[in-house]
């Protein structure tokens, strides 16, 4: 089996994908028309042409504008279902989807509409595609602690429909400690905890996400490389990093894929995983991310492919027995390859 074929065939989990970041321009235009939303772009082509980002904020401005077409439960369902069909084609067996409720509730969309639409797509993905899927509610860090608490309160009637909380949006100037009390409450509620840290922000944000928010995984975390002692800690404590290679290049964290430092993290023994972040905006879904990394780093071979897939299964929030089953499937694929 060639390496590109192996990358597709190996069972993998996707642990860092913002479902609003899977909205393709064609679907944005279709939903805009259906819902009577006026977009500041004349066509699909004009919108796509605007996808040239200089940093995280320049992307977020367009990402939130795109999400404004989502109004009805069916819109959330369609968006997530389209993602699952692509994920299945990429060999994804498990996905943990981030969603940003504040982006929607601020426009008058009910929490119930958002969560039930996404949940129905998760159920159908399991039934028809064999993908297990769960939801992680993200707080927008550019908004206040008070807003995050109100969002948590509004989501509690649907507590059984999401497994954890995360922290995303503009990183610089919004350190993890701003949300320490919200995360402490979520911890009491038994929710899994993750946070974006060390994407654009400093390595110290990774440390405070671990020490103050008590997150179980760090989203991105690539700036940890600025602090060798932190990389050693991540490896020793087996804290997973959900790295998003195409995102990092599109948002100018690295100048190109050859400059991406994922191989160093892997070599240091960190539990690195590969993810797509916002695939409709960054030029590729999960398999595109794997292939881009392996194309740009020819020193990475089958061992690295195995490690990345195994890490993604290990880092997922599923019961140990399920992880063990997928690990056996992974071993079988490599034995036959
Ligand atoms: N890469 C990213 N970083 C922070 N917030 C996000 N929201 C969607 N994608 C994001
Ligand atoms: Zn992200």
UniProtKB/TrEMBL annotation:
The identity of this protein, by name, is Adenine deaminase
Claim: Cell cycle is one of the keywords in the record:
no
Query: Catalytic positions?
Result: 199
Any keyword Hydrolase?
yes
**Gene3D superfamilies per record:** Metal-dependent hydrolases
- Stored Pfam families: A_deaminase
Which EC number(s) are documented for this chain?
A: 3.5.4.2
Per UniProt, residues of the Adenosine deaminase domain are 11-328
Single Gene Ontology MF annotation: zinc ion binding
Q: From the record, what ranges are coiled-coil?
A: none
For this entry, list what GO says about its biological process. Answer: adenine catabolic process; hypoxanthine salvage; nucleotide metabolic process
Residues annotated as binding Zn(2+)? 16, 18, 196, 277
Q: Which SUPFAM superfamilies match?
A: Metallo-dependent hydrolases (SSF51556)
Family, per the entry? Belongs to the metallo-dependent hydrolases superfamily. Adenosine and AMP deaminases family. Adenine deaminase type 2 subfamily.
Q: Where is this site: Important for catalytic activity?
A: 220
Task: Recite the UniProt keywords alphabetically.
Answer: Hydrolase, Metal-binding, Nucleotide metabolism, Zinc
* Catalytic class of the enzyme: hydrolase
Which InterPro entries does the annotation name?
A_deaminase_dom (IPR001365), ADE (IPR028892), Ado/ade_deaminase (IPR006330), Metal_Hydrolase (IPR032466)
* Purpose: Catalyzes the hydrolytic deamination of adenine to hypoxanthine. Plays an important role in the purine salvage pathway and in nitrogen catabolism.
Quote the cellular component terms of the Gene Ontology held in the record. cytosol
What cofactor(s) does the depicted protein rely on?
Zn(2+)
């Amino acid at each position: 089996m060639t390496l590109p074929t192996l990358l597709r065939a190996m069972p993998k989990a996707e642990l860092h994908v913002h479902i609003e970041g899977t909205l393709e321009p064609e679907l944005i235009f279709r939903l805009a028309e259906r819902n009577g939303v006026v977009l500041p772009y004349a066509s699909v082509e004009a919108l796509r042409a605007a996808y040239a980002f200089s940093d995280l904020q320049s992307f977020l401005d367009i990402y939130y504008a795109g999400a404004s077409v989502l109004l009805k439960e069916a819109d959330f369902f369609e968006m997530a279902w389209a993602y699952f069909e692509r994920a299945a084609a990429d060999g994804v067996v498990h996905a943990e989807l981030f969603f940003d409720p504040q982006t929607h509730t601020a426009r008058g969309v009910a929490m119930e509409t958002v969560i039930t639409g996404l949940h129905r797509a998760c159920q159908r993905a399991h039934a028809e595609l064999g993908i297990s899927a769960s939801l992680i509610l993200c707080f927008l860090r550019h908004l206040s602690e008070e807003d995050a608490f109100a969002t948590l309160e509004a989501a509690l009637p649907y507590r059984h429909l999401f497994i954890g909380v995360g922290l995303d949006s503009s990183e610089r100037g919004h350190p993890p400690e701003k949300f320490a009390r919200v995360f402490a409450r979520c911890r009491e509620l038994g929710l899994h905890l993750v946070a974006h840290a060390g994407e654009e922000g400093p390595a110290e944000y990774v440390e405070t996400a671990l020490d103050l928010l008590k997150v179980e995984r760090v989203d991105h975390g690539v700036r940890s490389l600025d602090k060798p002692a932190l990389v050693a800690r991540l490896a020793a404590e087996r804290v997973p990093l959900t790295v998003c290679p195409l995102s990092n290049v599109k948002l100018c964290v690295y100048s190109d894929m050859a400059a991406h430092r994922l191989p160093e993290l892997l070599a240091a023994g960190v539990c690195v995983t590969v993810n797509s972040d916002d695939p409709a905006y960054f030029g590729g879904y999960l398999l595109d991310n794997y292939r881009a990394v392996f194309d740009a780093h020819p020193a990475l071979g089958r061992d690295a492919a195995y490690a990345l897939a195994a890490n993604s299964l290990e880092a997922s929030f599923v019961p140990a027995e399920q992880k063990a089953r997928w690990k056996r499937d992974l071993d079988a694929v490599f034995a036959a390859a």
